[in-house]
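Running low. Got one?
___
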Amino acid sequence: MGNGIPVAASIFKPELLVEFGKNIRYVNTFGGNSVAIAAAQAVLDVIREESLMENAHKVGDKIITGLKDLAQGLEQVAEVRGSGFFIGVDLVTDRATLTPDGQAATGIVNSLRACHCGCRKPRAGLRV
């Protein structure tokens, strides 16, 4: 949130914090750090002014649509879902039981690491 400067925020419904507020009187990581707050504000300004959330949803929808198209007919892909750039692909060994396929997921992650996530050629052994 601070574009490299340590800053954090939490948002809760008030009713979730009633018990917490009774028992914990002080919590802080970088309390009163005006540099961190200025950095966070600058980041939030850019997100708003450049419509980055709207863009993430627009581009994310295209990615999800593309992944769904790629997954058609692949028994190993149970579902593709997401919002913006937060995207999930459920890989399974059996669509009927929805048994997760950790081996396939690990293989994909390792293939992406091997090509530094920037190549466009699938690596040998990539099953999906």
Notes: Residues 14-49 form one domain. The chain is about 45% helix and 15% strand. Residues 16 and 22 are 12 Å apart (CA to CA).
